[in-house]
Amino acid sequence: MSDKELASARYSDRICFNYSDFLSASCKKRWSFVDAIYGVMPIFGMVTRKSAQGLAASDEHLKELALQIISTQVSDEINIARLITLAEQQHISRFDIQLPYPLSAEQLDAIHHEYRKALNLTQQDDLLCVSIPIQPH
Fold it and tell me: Within 13 Å, how many C-alpha atoms sit on residue 64's CB side?
């Protein structure tokens, strides 16, 4: 799978994750012991593998991080909440996730419950638009 297909495409100022491509790449990935630990405890991986290049995330860096946290072993709702957490840590407050199917209201509620912070989710067919409100410091 090419990098163009896998990652994120930029639409003006928004990133679009192709969730199906991430799941497919996750299935094909050869896991090391460290990768397996990060798959079970993704927050540990996101914190310890932060780039020394600064806070701004490049598309490549974002793809690598997303591949570390997406797992076919957990529900779509948990994977999406993990992607939202990753985006927040990379200071991305607005992005889209291209899904293979539209989510139900129950699935959207589960994402809100899993993420546990203020979050705006809107759906346009199989495109999930995510907006994380900027929190004052």
Answer: 10
